[in-house]
Write a structure and sequence with these properties.
about 160 residues, alpha+beta, Alpha-Beta Plaits, two-stranded antiparallel ribbon, 5 helices
């Protein structure tokens, strides 16, 4: 069974520890702009939203890559980049609907989450457990459960009005 990152933005405090450990693990420097996970702040809502590759089953980045440098790793079942083939055109960055692809201007390469080869550092160092590494089917069930709960609460509020 494949595993994915499960991100609970409601738990995120915006500490950005995930960005720091990611950049250190992958690039050897503490530089959030070189991380494969990025925390976006939604000012009007006062929310911090960690954004990372969703490891899409039918990944747009794979199908649009002109060099076919993006494929699915068979062992860990994640979308990976072959840097020996990638030309850095950034087409994958433009087409990603989740903002999971980035471009490292220092390293001159596209970057995305590779699940740290099965031991995601963002998960290990997130003190509030806003990022978890879970079985892919659990992620889907949790999302369905949350959506059903929100819908039932909305219906309850509407009935009270």
């Amino acid at each position: 069974m494949s595993k994915v990152l499960k991100i609970d933005y409601e738990k995120c405090t915006g500490c950005r520890q995930c960005e720091l450990v990611c950049s250190v693990f992958h690039e050897g420097v503490s530089n959030p702009s070189r991380a494969r996970i990025n925390v976006v702040k939604w000012e009007s809502e006062g929310l911090y939203i960690p954004m990372s590759c969703q490891q899409c089953e039918d990944a747009p980045c794979m199908s649009i890559c002109p060099m076919k440098a993006i494929s699915r790793d068979k062992e860990l079942d994640y979308v990976k980049i072959d840097y020996d083939i990638c030309i850095g055109c950034r087409t994958c960055v433009a087409v990603c609907p989740f903002g999971g692809m980035g471009f490292d201007v220092i390293g001159k390469k596209v970057i995305k989450c590779d699940l740290c080869d099965g031991d995601p550092q963002c998960v290990r160092f997130c003190e509030v457990k806003a990022v978890e590494y879970v079985e892919a089917d659990r992620q889907g069930m949790d999302k369905k459960r949350e959506a059903a709960l929100k819908q039932s609460q909305a219906e309850k509020k509407a009935a009270e009005i």
